[in-house]
Every structure is written in C-alpha cells, then in structure tokens.
Fold:
Amino acid sequence: MKTTAQEIEEIKNFWNWFLAHCNDFGEKFENEILINELDERILNLGDFVWEIGTGVEHDHMLVISPGGDPELLRKTKEIVSYSISCKGWEFYYSKPPKEWNLLFIFQKDNGEEIEIDGRHWQYTLLKFDDGMFKVIFKAPGLSTLSTEERLTAAEIILDSILGEEFRILTIGEIDVVDDFEDQCNSNDISSLEKHLKQLS
Structure:
C-alpha cells in the first residue's frame, strides 16, 4: 500500500522531533518522560516494536522494528529512510545482529525471570518449496516456558544471530523441542548463519 502524503508528513515530523531531543534521553536513557513520549510517537506511526541502546558504530542506536512481521518491514524501511543525521546515533529499520554469547535473562508472561543459555542449542533445517525454511531447535531446559514463550525466546536468538530482516526473509516457521524425535542431521547453533546463507 502506497504511503500517503499525510503519513510522510507524520514521519518527517517524528524525525524533526527526534533530532531536537536526541541528546536529551540521558547517558543511560534515564529520562523516563522523554522515553514515554518516544514510545507514543513511534506507535502513532504504526504497530511497531522499538528499542534504544548502545550502537554498533556509534554511541547510541534507535531501532524501529516490524516485530517480525514481513508486511511491516517495507514500512519501517521507509520510516528510517527519512531519518535525519544526529551526532552519536545510528538508526535501523529492523533489529541488527548482535555480538553476544546467547546467554540472557528472559521474562515470562507471569513476570518470572529465568536465564536462557542458547550456546549449546542445536538445530535442523527444512526447506519449503517457496525457498523459505523451517528451523527446529533442540533447546533442553525450557520446560517451564509455554509454547509461545519458547518461540519468543527462539526469535530473540535468531534475530541476534541473523538480524531480524534476514530472519524474516528466510525463516517461515520455528519449532522448539526438548529433543529430536528422529535421527536427523543436527548442527550446532554457531553454524546457523553460515548454513542458511549457503542454502539461500
């Protein structure tokens, strides 16, 4: 769907606002009033997920993410295409890959926090006729998580390894199991990105 002139004006207004305030969030993003306003302004543009944090090449980054929705990826690309240079900031239309050890704290729907260690996960890939893939993770130790929570944890892992855009464009289905039912060609998670790029 083509972006209307009014929507483009709203996008430009957002970036003008961000440029005016990009140095006011606080060194550790402690300016809660401004963070809440940022949230409202991004959600006014659409049903997006966003995050701010330490940048890859600069001190800070803002990610306006499609939240894994391929239909919203075009929209976030367009929004970020109107971004205005702000010293110390970089902008992304999807979550970029991260350099980390796949060990993180996951908050369950009931508020309980558990540690997830993805360093020893294994996977197998199935390729669909349309060229997309199903990835099945063998991830023991997640018995206290619901099916939906397991998938969320797997998406966090995938986005950090592949980057959200590559994940959206290559992974059509995700499954998380305690063990593989049948003998299959499983691989260590460390080889997932290279494996997918070879097959894509």
Observations:
- Residues 5-21 form the longest helix (17 residues).
- The mean pLDDT is 94.
- The two ends are 28 Å apart (CA to CA).
